[in-house]
Specification:
alpha+beta; Ribosomal Protein S5, domain 2; Alpha-Beta Plaits; 2 domains; four-stranded antiparallel sheet; 14 strands; 35% helix
């Protein structure tokens, strides 16, 4: 980029990743889910992104992603093209985007959720600033969620604190396929003490991309059954969250994790994403739960890494269990210690105009 650069507006947000308890698998139309999902945001796994708008310069997007190379930059350019129909000012500016993750790109955490969540929050703030709208109102968060969904489906759940639902469901009339909604009240306090130990079985590149995995549901023999199961599990899980029923929580969360992998194993072509060490970890987690009577469970995204979920009151016992029995089955003994988070945060110097 040549000449003196003068920024007109900038925005900076830190957005967490999230872990789905009821999984969405399969898309329809453009980035809309076949079934509803329910997740909570993490605390320590986040992406921090800044966006500066410039009037001058000959490069449409100048992108710097620390720790990861160019392919994600290409994805960002396509994304900006997609959302330009909703944000007409995009074509009037050049962009300088800087982004970094707090976690390894292949750690079994949804980096696209936090990345597109952070970028969508920046774009929404810039949109509201340019149009003179109030930042932080309910419309702000809804628009950020919808813009995030266009980049990555699961990203729409990352813009809220705590728990969120994406997809139409009988639970709430406000639920939508276009954006996620937060669960604002009623959840038993015990679930705000959730911990997530991410056991890194394999940090390599995913065998199957999320987009390709979702496409396998289009003609899946069990598609209708899976959609019905997800709706039933949504109801069961929400009731467990309201009543503090940890046993039901454990049952539904593990059923959802294994159902996701069952869909992959019975698709055409089929894929087995779990590794031998993944299965060993699952077996040990279940055995520990049976012997100790401590309510721990696992969930898994579309990969081999295991998320061990447990509660704050059991932290000492579970951490001892991880160090004693589980780390030998993690790649180089790696694991990430995380917990439920408070949602995105804006930089104190965000949304400033200037020369």
């Amino acid at each position: 980029m040549t000449g003196t650069i003068k920024h007109t507006h900038r925005s900076k947000w830190k957005c967490p990743s999230n872990i789905a308890l009821v999984k969405y698998w399969g898309k329809r139309d453009f980035q809309k889910p076949m079934n509803p999902s329910l997740s909570f945001v993490l605390c320590n796994a986040f992406t921090e992104t800044s966006v500066e708008l410039h009037k001058n310069g000959d490069q449409k997007v100048e992108f710097n992603f620390e720790g990861e190379a160019g392919l994600f930059g290409e994805r960002i350019e396509k994304y900006l093209d997609h959302v330009s129909g909703r944000l007409s000012w995009i074509n009037k500016y050049n962009f300088r985007i800087h982004s970094q993750n707090s976690f390894p790109h292949s750690a079994g955490i949804a980096s696209s959720a936090s990345s597109f969540g952070a970028l969508a929050l920046c774009l929404t703030e810039l949109d509201f600033a340019l149009s003179g709208k109030e930042i932080g109102c309910s419309d702000f968060w809804q628009k950020a969620s919808e813009l995030a969904r266009i980049g990555s489906g699961s990203a729409c759940r990352s813009v809220y604190p705590g728990f969120a639902i994406w997809g139409k469901t009988q639970l709430f009339e406000s639920c939508s396929d276009d954006y996620a909604v937060p669960i604002l009240g009623g959840i038993n306090q015990t679930f705000y003490g959730l911990r997530d130990a991410i056991l890194m079985v394999d940090t390599g590149t995913k065998e199957v991309s999320s987009s390709f995995g979702h496409s396998l549901m289009d003609n899946h023999i069990y598609q209708r059954s899976r959609i019905a199961q997800a709706h039933e599990n949504m109801n069961e899980l929400y009731l467990a969250l309201l009543t503090g029923n940890q046993e039901k929580f454990v049952s539904v969360v593990e059923n959802e994790a294994l159902s996701l992998h069952a869909m992959m194993m019975t698709s055409d072509p089929s894929f087995i994403l779990l590794k031998p060490n993944s299965l060993e970890l699952i077996s040990r987690i279940r055995r520990f739960r049976e012997k100790s009577k401590i309510p721990v469970c696992f969930t898994i995204d579309a990969g081999p890494n295991i998320h061990l979920l447990y509660f704050k009151e059991n932290e000492i016992d579970v951490r001892a269990f991880i160090e004693r029995e589980l780390l030998d089955f993690c790649e180089n003994g790696k694991w990430i210690d995380d917990r439920i988070g408070g949602g995105p945060k804006a930089s104190p110097n965000h949304s400033k105009g200037g020369e």
